């Protein structure tokens, strides 16, 4: 890799250019140059690479499958919305060299300050950037340039003192270990050292008992604290001598605070931690709108990459718009627009390959069917032959159940959401007794019980008898039976009101509502909406006016228990931050269990009236924003520009809890700003609250610039002294940028 390799860079079937690729000596940068001109075309950092895919795993490489074998092909996938890089090596051996080499380089990147090895990688990276003349040494002028690059506006005399203290050889330059000393002096964390000394009797170490005191008093760790303390010492103490004495040094203490165990996000909630045996309608489900689009809704590109990215993010409900295509092949695109087209076959193949790589739990494929009867038959045939056993084609036990099955029961299954001829019970054994007749002027508990039995998939109500007349005939004329048979638990039906649904609908049916219709229902009938979502699925989709693929706030839809809140995953912003914040828990499986008061069909909860929530009263969330570390520069900022950072904390939840507060801004310091400000919030329904931390570059003449953010569900917050590891606008990590905060939760 470091000697360089000649490979084909591919953009389309006809655009294949030979380029010379080389990994630079820093093992952090790859550049490529034209074979013909020798000009360097582009470069990218290893930190930009999310993953490497082998073989024909892109549309472009699939189109070249007959020309080039899969062993020579691979795709470099970047974080965010940067386009993939498709490459064809000269041999299978060269391809493997790059694939395996890149995978090794991108593997150890999370929480960079938790390992000495990775910390040294970061130090070396800064040294490479600052060593302008590449002589392996750094003079004071280069140090000043380094400080600007690191977002530090430091007094020149102070910078010179740090430089001279590190220059042990008195050569006027820094090299090797001297630069490490300079870097450590630069990154000294006074606020962490002060906290360390508060609990350390000698100021040099924390004994096992002192560490236990800190974990109990400040971090509120109340179970197995001694075992946890021993584990942290073994894991994060760099000194073998200190480890042998069961002590934690200041360096080890900092490494613990910067680790996953010291994160604001409860590490136990990163893994699967919720009950997965409840009905599907009891979960919020990560959902995408027009998944095939990776740009806008009018002229944007349709790509299988949209499905791959969504599935890798844990998305469990995907959308596909199908239209008649040439040669009897259905195509996927946004109808009546100029978006490009992809074969339905490719979408299904991609779904089969990637559906369960991130999560074992069911995927719902929301089918918008605009095809003729002939091509509907093709849709059904391709779904069945390509997906095979993955496609759910009958109920879990072959009988009509009285409620939706659970994610656990539907593991590794793909459910089709779409129109269906007749009802599910027409083709399956019934649940048992026939539901009695229910008259229009009924009242009393007995009648309510009869209604409930009807709702739970009993015999068709007499008032719906006409359903089996003209309506059924119309369905048979417009929908292929083979495609209809693929729809089991997610039959699409029109929404005609909550009472109508309660009397005439089934748990196996699902309604789709526009964001505007949903908002009106939330405003006019909040409690009924919550009750409805306790037994049936509801899907919300963006307004057709959002041609730029912008998003609505998912929070107000989650507040009434809507499960499938479809967002444009390709568009970064607050809305997708909230989505990622909610679904980053529970093993990123794409399912989050709703609060208990939203799973009860008799609930009194209404998000517009927080006092309707059962349980204890409001809680107070107190956040002390202490400091920031190595905040990134604003994109496209001028050379030498240094940010003036401020922190805003936003509460997203029920209307009574919506709030935001921010710190003052710190002038010219993006490297280690100190705020030491306390913000306080009252939460009436903490179970639905998401907390978004945003760092911005203050600008008194125009809108502040985004620097980084992190969003976490209140249920996943760990109290105490915690680091918040910031994410970019695209939701990708930007190590080692972080905030240091102190969290308190009181009733």
UniProtKB/TrEMBL annotation:
Q: How does it sit in the membrane?
A: Peripheral membrane protein
Q: Which positions bind substrate?
A: 417, 419, 512, 539
Output compositional bias ranges, type Acidic residues. Answer: 427-448
Map out region (Disordered) in residue numbers.
Answer: 425-449
Q: Which InterPro entries match?
A: C2_dom, C2_domain_sf, EF-hand-dom_pair, EF_Hand_1_Ca_BS, EF_hand_dom, PH-like_dom_sf, PH_domain, PI-PLC_fam
Its cofactor is: Ca(2+)
Record-level GO cellular component terms: endoplasmic reticulum; nucleus; plasma membrane
Give the coiled coil ranges: none
For the keyword Lyase, the answer is no
Subcellular localization is given as:
Cytoplasm; Endoplasmic reticulum; Membrane; Nucleus
Task: Give the positions the UniProt entry annotates as the active site.
Answer: 289, 334
Name of the featured protein: Phosphoinositide phospholipase C
Which species is this record about?
Rynchops niger
Q: Which gene encodes it?
A: Plcd4
